[in-house]
Design goal:
The complex is a heterodimer. By secondary structure, chain A is of the alpha/beta class. Chain A is built from 14 helices and 12 strands. In chain A, the strands form 3 sheets. Chain A has a 5-stranded mixed β-sheet, covered by helices on one side. In chain A, strands 9-8-10-11-12 form a 5-stranded parallel β-sheet. In chain A, strand 6 and strand 7 form a beta hairpin. The longest helix of chain A has about 120 residues. The radius of gyration of chain A is 55 Å and the shape is elongated. By secondary structure, chain B is an alpha+beta fold. Chain B contains 5 helices and 11 strands; from the N terminus they run H-E-E-H-E-E-H-E-E-H-E-E-E-E-H-E. The longest helix of chain B has 28 residues. Chain B is globular, with a radius of gyration of 20 Å. The N and C termini of chain B lie far apart (about 45 Å).
Chain lengths: ~550, ~180
């Protein structure tokens, strides 16, 4: 295949160069024709040659006229004609035209002989008298002897010009034939090139179609695997919870200390497995393209406590998890996934290591929540593990090390949360894994919500379900600012009422509960108003922006 | 051609007298002919198909117009020659011939060429009266030779323009 493409490429280049060469040859051929025409036009001295003969005749006529009229005017005419004849005959040898005249007279000497005669005649003409009949007759007789030579000269020029014209005509004809042949060859090559291009185009389209099918099949296969992974982790979680529940009950009963330790061990392993299954479930959704973060306000201390609890549950209670002072109490993000990220990473770093040297610190830089897992480097294998965490030794997704499942899930979650993972070298042989995830601090501590509905029952249900320490419902007759207006689209939402509400609460966010009559009147629409958890998430999202 | 000259044996005194008379005669001729030549009409401009409007120029009158020098080669001379004379467009303006489309230039031997007046607007075409500082005689394509600045413009090397270098010009007329 590669050989065919190389041959085609060189063939195309060759055709291009050949056509360029043809174009150059054609252009030169046309230029040569033009030059030939110019030269033949310049070399044509027939007019100049015949002028000598014509002017000789006119001079003879003027002399004959002098013989008849014998007047000073006739004599002046003779002298004028003599000068004109002189100017024609003495052109020879001067300039290109003179050179051509000389060439046609080569080997004959007609023109030099005539020039010599005119030079001898010059003083005679100057001394001419109108009544000098004998001298005039003598001049007329002598002039006749040159008529014949000039006639022959003119004939030589005529024949020479004709031969030169024929030669140029032949040259132009040959050039025309060459140009025609070149044009024909160029047309044939163009057709050949076009055929090759069409053939190549068809082949490329076939290859593209094949590639598309392979890609589709690979995509389908990947989706099927992801779905299988998701289903499997979901199915495993339920029976595992069935194991963990009885284990918890068993742990509360009066057991011998040896049995109690076994139960605790089983519980630790079970919790670890639940966490791993949750990670696998998320990973499957990420691969499948169905993964969504559950973003809502949370207390940073809650995250730290969750990480601490999970690590302790996994037997890693030596890890110190702390908050750096000065950060916000509440931020906005997916607290559950953040907890998984830090537990997976910490657990992986600590496998087979001393938990006493490890600490996790959370802080906030104004925009991002940052968690730093610091540890002492006392094991040569840590570099290899860190490379796995950073994904440096992965060649392709299907070549992930079997050891790297936890880092892989953590990296996937960090990426989904648009965060950054980095490794920082610290002092005294310590290193830090730094995770930075966008988590804006809350603008409002509480949100004031006004509910617009004609249904008293619906109002009571919403308020009961949504009211919390951060959500206040504003009564219809209550004054003060409103951050969000929830509008029951099934019983209200007409254009005039919306305009009035918009005017009244110009800074508020308008959310439609259900499909509204005029969607352009709303900033957000909650399609399923009965999904209270999603609605709460939407309302709390308002706290951050 | 020896029979043309005033030949024959004679005394020394006779020869001296003869030479003296001849010298006086030729001096008279030499003195009178240029004056006569300068005074006579060398170029006629005419306008209209019947030539009702015309204007004659003597050599002095042409020489009195602003003179332009061009240095150029041509097909009839060896190497570059310095030509000098009035611009054609200046001369023909005396009879407003520049407004016509084409002019006919006629030579002393009745040869003529027809030249579009655009040539005189595009190029500095002159009626050359001198070549290399010497007044052009009738025997040397004078007294008026239409000259294009060929060396200054590549397009003027075309045979079309070479055929327009008419010499011994005696008449310029509108068509």
């Amino acid at each position: 295949m590669n050989l065919t493409r190389t041959v085609q490429r060189y063939l195309g280049l060759g055709i291009l160069l050949t056509m360029a060469a043809f174009a150059v040859v054609g252009y030169l051929s046309i230029r040569r024709d033009v030059e030939n025409l110019r030269v033949i036009s310049q070399d044509n001295i027939l007019w100049t040659a015949t002028q000598m003969e014509v002017e000789l005749l006119r001079f003879q006529l003027s002399v004959a006229n002098l013989q008849l009229e014998k007047s000073p005017e006739a004599l002046e005419q003779v002298r004028e004609r003599f000068d004109i004849l002189w100017s024609r005959v003495f052109m020879m040898g001067s300039g290109r035209v003179g050179e051509l005249i000389r060439r046609y007279d080569q080997g004959h000497g007609s023109i030099p002989a005539f020039q010599q005669y005119l030079e001898e005649l010059d003083p005679v003409i100057a001394a001419f008298e109108p009544g000098d009949a004998a001298q005039i007759r003598l001049v007329l007789r002598e002039l006749e002897t040159f008529q014949h030579d000039l006639r022959l000269y003119t004939l030589r020029v005529v024949r020479g010009d004709t031969a030169a014209s024929a030669e140029v005509r032949d040259r132009i004809q040959n050039n025309s034939q060459t140009t025609m042949a070149i044009s024909l060859a160029a047309v044939l090559l163009s057709v050949l090139a076009l055929a090759l291009i069409l053939h190549e185009n068809r082949r490329q389209r076939q290859v593209a179609e094949l590639n598309r099918r392979v890609a589709d099949e690979a995509e389908l296969s990947s989706r099927a695997k992801s779905r299988f992974l998701t289903m499997m982790s979901h199915e495993l979680r339920n029976p595992l919870n069935g194991v963990l529940g009885p284990l918890a009950l068993l742990g509360q009963s009066d057991l011998a200390s040896r049995h109690q330790r076994l139960v605790e061990q089983a519980q630790q392993s079970g919790k670890s497995m639940v966490q791993m299954l949750a990670g696998l479930f998320d990973y499957g959704e990420m691969q499948d393209g169905r993964f969504h973060l559950r973003v809502e306000p949370f207390r940073v201390a809650t995250l730290a406590a969750g990480v601490r609890t999970d690590l302790a549950g996994a037997g890693l209670d030596g890890v110190r998890v702390t908050l750096r002072a000065g950060g916000p109490e509440f931020v906005h993000g997916d607290v559950e996934r953040l907890r998984h990220i830090f537990v997976h990473l910490t657990d992986y770093v600590l496998e087979g290591s001393d938990s006493e040297s490890l600490n996790v610190v959370f802080h906030h830089d104004g925009e991002n929540l940052i968690g730093e897992i610091g540890f002492a480097v006392d094991d040569a294998t840590i570099d290899w593990k860190l490379d796995l965490i950073m994904g440096l030794n992965e060649i392709a997704p299907d070549q992930v090390s079997t050891e790297a499942l936890r880092p892989l899930i953590a990296r996937g979650l960090i990426s989904a949360a648009k965060g950054l993972l980095s490794l920082v070298d610290g002092d005294a042989g310590r290193r830090t894994i730094r995770v930075s995830v966008p988590a804006p601090r809350l603008r409002y501590e509480r949100i004031r919500v006004r509910l617009e509905t004609r249904s008293t029952a619906l109002s009571a249900i919403y308020q009961a379900a949504l009211r919390s320490e951060r959500i206040d419902f504003v009564e219809p007759d209550e004054s003060g600012p409103v951050d969000m207006v929830l509008v029951d689209a099934t019983s209200i939402g007409e254009e005039p009422l919306m305009a009035r509400l918009r005017n009244q609460f110009s800074d508020a966010l308008f959310v439609s509960l259900g499909a509204p009559q005029s969607p352009e009147s709303f900033d957000d629409i909650v399609e399923s108003p009965s999904d209270m958890s999603r609605l709460r998430s939407r309302i709390l999202g308002r706290l951050a922006n | 051609m020896k029979h043309w000259g005033p030949a024959g044996p004679s005394a020394h005194a006779l020869i001296v007298v003869t030479f003296a008379i001849a010298a006086g005669f030729f001096a008279l001729v030499a003195a009178s002919r240029p004056a006569h030549a300068l005074a006579e009409t060398v170029l006629t401009l005419s306008r209209g198909s019947d030539g009702v409007e015309s204007l004659d120029f003597t050599l002095d009158e042409l020489a009195a117009l602003p003179q332009v020098t061009i240095v150029t080669e041509n097909e009839f001379s060896d190497g570059e020659v310095v030509y000098r004379g009035p611009l054609v467009r200046d001369v023909i303006e005396h009879l407003a011939l520049g407004q016509t489309e084409t002019l006919r230039f006629t030579a002393a031997n009745d040869y003529y060429v027809e030249i579009p007046t655009s040539d005189f607007r595009r190029f500095d075409v002159i009626l050359a009266l001198e070549a290399d500082g010497v007044r052009l005689s009738r025997r040397d394509k004078g007294p008026i030779w239409l000259m294009y600045p060929i060396s200054d413009h590549q397009e003027l090397r075309d045979p079309l323009f070479i055929h327009r270098l008419i010499w011994q010009v005696v008449r310029i007329e509108s068509l």
